[in-house]
Amino acid sequence: MKMRKMMKFAWDNYKQYALGKNELRPLTKNGHIGNMFGGLRGATVVDALDTLYIMELEEEFQEAKKWVEKSFDLNVNGEASLFEVNIRYIGGLLAAYYLTGEEVFKSKALELGEKLLPAFNTPTGIPRGVINLGSGMSWSWGWASAGSSILAEFGTLHLEFLHLSELSGNPVFAEKVMNIRKVLNRVEKPQGLYPNFLSPVTGNWVQHHVSIGGLGDSFYEYLIKSWLMSDKKDSEAKKMYDDALEAIEKHLVKKSAGGLTYIAEWRGGILDHKMGHLACFSGGMIALGAEHAGEGRKRHYMDLAAEITNTCHESYARSDTKLGPEAFRFDTGTEAMATRLSERYYILRPEVVESYMYMWRLTHDPKYRQWGWEAVKALEKHCRVEAGFSGIRDVYTTTPTHDNMQQSFFLAETLKYLYLLFCEDDVLSLDDWVFNTEAHPLPVNHTNFKAKASVQ
């Protein structure tokens, strides 16, 4: 299968030029470390483990596993994003453990999980966004509004932390995330919406910005997925999801003059008619939730999911490269296109093909495979370079400049979702697995959940 060859190409070049660094820079043929992971290395290794395994790239999987065993050092000193370390490293290690049963992945996940706990030492228990993995000191992002924590960051820990409690027998991880949920349930929601910034000191919203794209996105995804992962026992998560989706549909879902359904952003009551590539996961999410919507709502939500996924496909179809921009607008005459240069780039993001995969599995409409194949051809044509895959700076030119970065999520998510789109439905069946927001599969708990769904 084509995606398997692409994965092998991405991995082989990473291994040759950047093994142990976080990402490959394919044009300069060297590695990139970056400052998101606090001194941790090998982000691409950990992100790629499960993809290599499910694609049956056995030799490559063994190379990755060997690196984790021999070279993956957790005794680091540096400032890390709690969110990124959780979704990429903890998620990747947990998935690798559940797929293979290899103890090394479990022990590394638990050891790293422990290092994240000091971030929760705040007056409300809402964690700060940045933590020094050596000293345990934590603080908020300098750019985040008034020392606040970000909804998509503290709201995207739930799946992984329940599994950390499950595997360690230590309830502290589950308690931390159940407390976050308690704070969110207690706080007043403007129009039923969840703003993006919350103070970890007061537990109040800091600004009334609402987004289903970056800063908000995966919080909503983890509500419906928490319910699915609990084998549909965590009814609190389901209710929070249903209520949030209702508010989103009432206030943010719009239809353009040209008939495209999109989700706008909300700034203190004023709508910004743009949708980010990151928000394109929502088609898949809404379809996943529609399966279990109340009477007569299933069709409604499947239609909404299909319309949003179609809009995201249009953002690809309307570009010269057939890849979509970072954000696209619906204000002027142009629809589903980026208007400003700063939003015209594509960094190998997965959200659009992620929605194709869910829509295919839940409807089996062949257009989703066709759309996925268009994306594969565009990636091969415009993003493949001599030594790997690179993002591009402008999707509206057929001679794009490359950004010299092979993101770890390209191997974790983009190639995995494309592969699954063309697999049989029983490969990582949606009945048995829930994907974290970095596409790392975690098992549905078909037995009794040790981490009880309500912590006192």
List strands and helices in order, with pairings:
Layout (H helix, E strand, L loop, with lengths): L1 H17 L4 E3 L4 E3 L10 H12 L3 H14 L7 E3 H19 L2 H14 L13 E3 L5 E2 L9 E2 H4 L3 H11 L3 H15 L10 E2 L6 E3 L1 E2 L6 H13 L5 H17 L1 E3 L5 E3 L1 E3 L2 E3 L1 E3 L5 H9 L6 H21 L9 E3 L21 H13 L3 H17 E2 L2 E2 L18 H14 L11 E3 L5 E3 L13
Antiparallel strand pairs: 1-2, 3-4, 4-5, 6-7, 7-8, 9-12, 10-11, 12-13, 14-15, 16-17, 18-19
Helix pairs in contact: 1-2, 1-15, 2-3, 2-4, 2-15, 4-5, 5-7, 7-8, 9-10, 11-12, 11-13, 12-13, 13-14, 13-15
Index terms:
15 helices, three-stranded antiparallel β-sheet, 456 residues, globular, mainly alpha
Short recap of the structure:
46% of the residues lie in helices and 11% in strands.
Q: How much β-strand is present in the residues?
A: 5-15%
Instruction: Summarize the main sheet.
Output: 3 strands, antiparallel
Helix content: 40-55%
Tally the helices: what do you get? 15
Kindly report the spatial arrangement of strands forming the biggest sheet: 3-4-5
Shape: globular
Radius of gyration: 21 Å
Number of strands: 19
> How far do the termini sit from each other?
49 Å
GO cellular component, one term: endoplasmic reticulum
Organism: Apteryx owenii (Little spotted kiwi)
Binding site for Ca(2+): 437
Subcellular location: Endomembrane system
